[in-house]
C-alpha cells in the first residue's frame, strides 16, 4: 500500500467496553509503566498502580482504535478524490 498523503491526529479518546475488557484481561507484562506523576495520582485516588495502569492501557487502546478509524477514513477519501481526477 502506498504511503498516505495525510496524517491522523487524535485529540482525546475514549475507551470502549471492548477496550476495558481487553485491558482488564491483559497480562501484567503488557501494562504500561507508570511515571512518578501517575503513581502519585493512583495513590491519591486510593487505587493500586496496576489498576491505574490498566486505565492507561484502556486509553492507549482507544487511541489506537481511533487512529485506525481515521486512517481508514483517510484512505477512502483519497480513493474518492483519485476517482474524481485532478
Provide the descriptors you would attach to this structure in a database record.
86 residues, 0% strand, 64% helix, single chain
Can you walk me through this structure?
The structure is a single chain. With 86 residues, the chain is mostly helical. It has helices spanning 17-25, 36-45, 49-84. It is built from three helices and no strands. Helix 1 (17-25) packs across helix 3. The radius of gyration is 18 Å and the shape is elongated.
Write the layout of secondary structure elements.
Blueprint: H1 17-25, H2 36-45, H3 49-84
Compute the gyration radius: what is it? 18 Å
Helix content: 55-70%
Indicate the low-confidence ranges by residue numbers. Answer: none
Q: Estimate the global geometry from the Cα principal axes.
A: elongated
Distance linking N and C termini:
21 Å
The helix/strand order is HHH
Class derived from helix and strand content = mainly alpha
| Beta-strand proportion | under 5%
Total helical segments: 3
Count of β-strands: 0
Summarize the entry for a quick read:
By secondary structure, the protein is mostly helical. The chain has helices at 17-25, 36-45, 49-84.
